[in-house]
Amino acid sequence: MDMNFNQHISAQFNADLETIRNKMMTMGGLVERQIAAAIDAICDGDSAVVEEVIRREDEVDRLEVAIDNACTQVLVLRQPAASDLRMVIAVSRVVRDLERMGDEACKIAIHAREYTQSSHSQICQQAIRSMGAEVVKMLTGALDAFARADVSDAVDVVRNDKLVDQQYASALRELITYMMEDPRSISQAINILWILRAIERIGDHARNISEQVIYLVSGTDVRHSSLSEIEERTQQ
Amino acid sequence: MTILKNHDTKGVAFVDDAKLTARHVNVFYGDKQAIFDVSLDVGANEVIALIGPSGCGKSTFLRCLNRMNDTIDRCQVQGDILLDGEPIYDGSMDVVPLRARVGMVFQKPNPFPKSIYDNVAYGPRLHGLATTRVELDAIVEYSLQRAGLWNEVKDRLDAPGTGLSGGQQQRLCIARTIAVDPEVILMDEPCSALDPIATAKIEELIDELRENYTIAIVTHSMQQAARVSQRTAYFHMGQLVEVNPTEQMFTTPEHTLTEAYITGRFG
């Protein structure tokens, strides 16, 4: 009896699962670059970068559909169970989050066009930079945790989401102050608000991906749980 | 003969409302040990699926539950098996009524070379369950209805049972088992000789039968185990490796061997 549990009897099944996983990582890498580029575009005002982010959004969408179809194929043809099933389900959920992150990056790029042209472009720039860097780090961390099947790294990402939420709340207070002091800044402030909101949402999606890492590794479904609940359930 | 002990079965092997109780069961075919210290409960009105690679002892264990192994000369069963708390291997236990209480359906449908009616009426006649023809008719109709076969055969009850299709024959065998009013039904790969439609009908039937009976089913189809059972037991080389609620077994098994088997990494 072959006791090598790393490989399926069917080599094609191994290959199918490996392909799905690799494609998801490729898509993750692309989305990571999209987000980083969109944030840079706000801070540097590079319009070529803005157009590039908007153009590549289609590529993200196509990858989502292709990977999701590949997952359906494996479900139909292989009826995966246990860790294989969790892998397919987790990938299918992660690509949906990645696609939405791609959408948010695209939104940031669109708002960047107006932001860089406005006279209030210094408002909240520090918050945008630091939140932006944080969510890119979260996404990288979530994808690494997925690749290494590391629950403790995944929980770290969930922890960082809380920090991003705090930064977001503080940036909102700053924006409100500007709007109260100078009503002419309101339309610009709302534009910035959309950007901050998009970055904050990207953090939420990175957290969702980390939750799927926990599901993949331990089978525990921690969606809609608080940080302390997640910490408790992953320590069991 | 050596008896291996002290291996751990992962998961939930015991239940509160056990219909069948097996404790420290060892089975030998001559000098060769086929089952090693298996302890397992089958709960009332539960469907439990026994899975595992060929030769893992799942069918041997199933056959212990109504003493079908008695028919094999060299087979020796040790340990305790209780039906409603009553030891079935006790000298005072008569195997004929035991096998009526714990019925069995086999891999290949095996109708008697008799009419459909007589196939079902055979057991009740033997056990004296009906005193009049009217009573017997009622048992035959009820059993065929419970087996989901009544509408297909009610106009040709005199036709030979062997003339039915494979799926119908298997449902006839289930009707024959039900006719003697069993408490437990053991099924040894009941669908492996059937096409997908006939299989779906039997699976649907298993779900309905659970209301009145306790069912233990050996199956090679993991999808079937997942569909019909509430708990699944995984056997490996004569040992009971893991028993858990079916849903958990197929998403997050506890033992690496279970994981490897159900994900198709060996078998």
Provide structural commentary.
The complex is a heterodimer of chains A (236) and B (267). The mean pLDDT of chain A is 93. Chain A has seven helices and no strands. The two termini of chain A are 34 Å apart. By secondary structure, chain A is mostly helical. The longest helix of chain A is centred in the middle third of the chain and has 36 residues, at 82-117. In chain A, helix 1 runs parallel beside helix 3, helix 1 (11-44) packs antiparallel against helix 4 (125-148) and helix 5 runs antiparallel to helix 6 (186-218). Helices cover 84% and strands 0% of the residues of chain A. Chain A has helices spanning 11-44, 47-78, 82-117, 125-148, 151-181, 186-218, 227-235. Chain B is of the alpha/beta class and 267 residues long. Chain B has a domain at 3-107 and 188-262: Rossmann fold (3-Layer(aba) Sandwich), CATH 3.40.50. Chain B has ten helices and eleven strands. In chain B, the strands form two sheets. Chain B has a seven-stranded mixed β-sheet with strand order 1-11-10-4-9-8-7, sandwiched between helices. The longest helix of chain B is centred in the middle third of the chain and has 14 residues, at 133-146. Chain B starts with 9 loop residues before the first strand and ends in a 5-residue tail after the last helix. At the A-B interface, helix 3 of A face helix 8 and helix 10 of B.
